[in-house]
Amino acid sequence: MISTRRVVVSSLVAAAMGGPSLALAEDTFQAEAGLSYSRLKTDFARQDTAGAGATYFFDKLPTQPRDYPLEQAQFVERIGSLSANYSRTHSDYTGFESLKNGSMYGITALFARPETPLFVDASYASLYSGKVRSGSLESETDGKFYQLAAGAYIDRTTAFNLGWSRNTTQNKSTSGESRNTSDSIVVSGQHLAQLSGGDHLALLAGLSLDTHERQGSASEKNRTVFVLATYYPTKMLGLKLGALSDRGDDRSNEGEFYLAGARMFVTPTLSLSLDFQKSHVKAPNSAADFDFVTLRALVRF
User: N or C: which end of the chain has fewer CB within 10 A?
Assistant: First the structure.
């Protein structure tokens, strides 16, 4: 839902803000890899997805940081990374026969350095829905996602971000083809605060201005406001709640989106997470109205 990260400032400013604490860490990691399983349900469909992903960090990170949660290591230390993922999806649609499974792959590059406050983030993803058939009608969808963002830290644990993204989908069926495009401009901010009891709270909030172009239809504009809060009662556990509100011309996407989840580090290098997402749109019988559950296991090394 968001995009946040990056870093750039002179060594003098970085020192004044409190430079990275890697030298204080006894153990470090430089990569992360894991497996995930998710299930999406709507009124007329169910999708099961299994995937794998990995991230390589451009510098080493501490596995046991002194003054922030383990999950926040990359954000606080301002370390760039390269991530890739791949997944396969099986779909069951009411009234349709599944002919071919879907797939998705993506790559994200984050360019950041500890001694600077500026950062740049670029992502690309490709999605294939799979092929389904109902009677003599066969259909499938290809999607492409592009994202570019840039931002800056104003202190060690606070950053702001300006991003652009484009999502294109091409729907193909035996009755014809159509193409849809959505462009978004996003302004967001991220902050990690240490509370009086020693626990932490991470906040991410922003505004997105969206333009939807559907083949054969007039341009539609929506605005989205979102907020995500993660509470860390310990450095090993994060509990998150989020909400998003979408309003505008595109009635099929107007509505609310909610997220709740938890990530626990069983050890400093092994974590398990469970996320639940719910979308409720105003338009009846919309494909954008769904429940989504994801279970993920990650190992750092």
Answer: C
